[in-house]
Hints:
Elements lengths: L1 E8 L3 E5 L3 H15 L1 H9 L2 E2 L5 E2 L3 E2 L3 E7 L3 E13 L3 H14 L3 E4 L4 E11 L8 E6 L6 E6 L2 E6 L5 H19 L7 E4 L7 E7 L7 E7 L1 E6 L1 H10 L12 E4 L9
Antiparallel strand pairs: 1-7, 1-9, 2-7, 3-4, 5-7, 6-7, 8-9, 10-16, 10-17, 11-12, 13-16, 14-15
Amino acid sequence: MRINISLESAKDEYKLPINYLYPLSAVVYKIFATGSESIAKWLHEKGFSDKSGRNLKLFNFSNLVFGKYQINPDFIRCMGSCSFIFSSPIETELIQTFINGIINLQSFQIGNKKYQSEFRISGIQLEKPPQFDDEQIFKTKSPISVSTIIEIKGEKKIYYYRPEDSGFTEAIQKNLIKKYEMIYQKTYNGTIEVSIPKGATPKSKLITIKEGSIEETKIKAFLTTISIKAEPDIMKTAYYCGLGERNSLGFGMLELFNLNKLEVKK
């Protein structure tokens, strides 16, 4: 299920940091904590686990959508209201807790020490579930990030796959199957093919997490269109969980795209 959350700022004009994803993720957890402190703590510390001990949060949220805005070197000048989408396939534990949190949370701040604004939730709307076929093209609402560990001169480093790397779609595919098997509690035995459409023009984004702290991390991610051929439940998993890594930090959210607009690369 997806929830569209409308936000109203205390000011007609306000500034937010360019790297607002991590502060927005803190708001998401605050909403969870308002709905249920125990579920928020469990999500933050562990989340859902499979038999091998792998942990995933199984929720996702989008970038903020502004009515009017102007991008500056280190901040976004915003005018009027904004909104974002929260998404999860786990309706009982996560969606219901999130809705309870929205109802009870009066106000909150988004931002860092330099740029921030006070908001209140002015409205919520449950989105109608789409119908999924066995072949879909999606467009990213927030950038996809997938990575691996490589060794350079004896030192291990994170390498972020690019869309032109074969590892990009392979990593997305493996991660998607892992999410499916965690949600449905069964092995996926169907076919699956993830690819970048031929007419796509991926755009790279460098997102800073925990900006200004000793734990500051820069994550390379990409906005793109992406094609998936698989069973409808795989499509649902991609749509409600997001693609790639760090979905609970706002990476990899998708929206449906017209399949006839682009030709898929062979």
